[in-house]
Specification:
The chain contains 11 helices and 4 strands. The chain has 285 residues and is of the alpha+beta class. The protein has 4 domains: 27 residues; 81 residues, no CATH class; 34 residues, no CATH class; 101 residues, Chitinase A, domain 3 (Roll), CATH 3.10.50.40. The protein is elongated.
């Protein structure tokens, strides 16, 4: 045997791993496992097959199903051995995982509760600002590039504005006026947030202060100057129940879930005597 490769021999690796496991078992002083029976019921096998089909969009073959069952048996055996070795008590990751499983049980219980219309209406009333339908605006604009026109941009914009107001320039052709811009010339029913994302904060604030009807401006944006004609503007309003139902339901259930988790933990905590060394928490003293 080559001395440089002796440690790669499978038999030697198996003996080393076995020795390590034996040492770990001895270290944890594992108690005897009383229940050595591992049963995989027909219901469990059906569930394994359904889970496979959801993932792979086809039923498993007999060989694949037997492999799933064997994996389930292996997982159960290793789980029992880990509990017997106390790994659930000494491994932080496992402890967190087990704690999360308990929380998931509480979440599953909360998910079974559906809100009534009265509960949703009350929730909407208590959180009206959160569900407010935002103001929307429809407008047309003509763009003037400050980079291209320099100091003359504002004067050019004002001259066109006078022509549009006087009717000497046909407003129906506004898309062909001004300078080219990689944005639409007309927008319908956009919110302040959407307008800000397209044109910048200054433009959004300015255009939402304009009254519908005539051409106005120039209004500054992230790109330059704009003449703007607001076609329609709606004020923010409170939604009705049907309009906000789906979002209300999800938020209501999420809040109930948090409340139930907190109540569930509080009831469990009352069963324990909690002793905390406060001196270790006073880090600044």
């Amino acid at each position: 045997m080559n001395l440089k490769t002796w440690y790669r021999e499978p038999l030697l690796q198996f003996l080393v791993i076995g020795g390590v496991l034996f040492g770990v078992v001895a270290l944890f002083k594992r108690p005897a496992i009383e229940d050595r029976r591992v049963e995989v019921s027909a219901e469990q096998i059906v569930q394994l097959g359904e889970r496979w089909q959801r993932q792979w969009m086809r039923p498993p073959t007999e060989k694949e199903l037997r492999g799933l069952v064997e994996d389930s048996v292996k997982q159960e055996i290793l789980y029992r051995e880990a509990l017997a070795m106390g790994l659930d008590r000494d491994d932080l990751v496992i402890r967190r995982r087990l704690a999360q499983q308990i929380e998931l049980l509480a979440n599953d219980l909360a998910a079974q509760i559906e809100p009534t219309d009265n509960e949703l209406a009350t929730y909407l009333e208590e959180n009206a600002e959160k569900y407010q339908v935002p103001a929307r605006i429809s407008f047309s604009h003509v763009y003037f590039s400050v980079d291209r026109r320099g100091a003359q941009a504002e004067g050019d914009a004002q001259a066109l504005l006078d022509g549009l107001r006087a009717g000497s320039v046909p407003s129906g052709q506004h898309g062909d006026l001004g300078d080219p811009l990689m944005l639409q010339s007309d927008y319908s029913g956009v919110t302040s947030q959407e307008t800000e994302r397209l044109f910048g904060t200054r433009f959004a604030e300015g255009v939402f202060e304009l009254e519908p009807g005539s051409w106005q401006g120039p209004v500054a944006s992230s790109y330059g100057l704009h003449l703007v004609r607001v076609v329609e503007k709606t004020e923010p309003r409170a939604p009705d129940l049907d309009e906000a139902r789906d979002r209300l339901r999800l938020d209501w259930m999420d809040e109930r879930r948090r409340e139930m988790n907190e109540a569930f933990y509080a009831s469990l905590r009352e069963r324990y005597e909690i002793h905390i060394d406060e001196s270790a928490l006073n880090l600044g003293e």
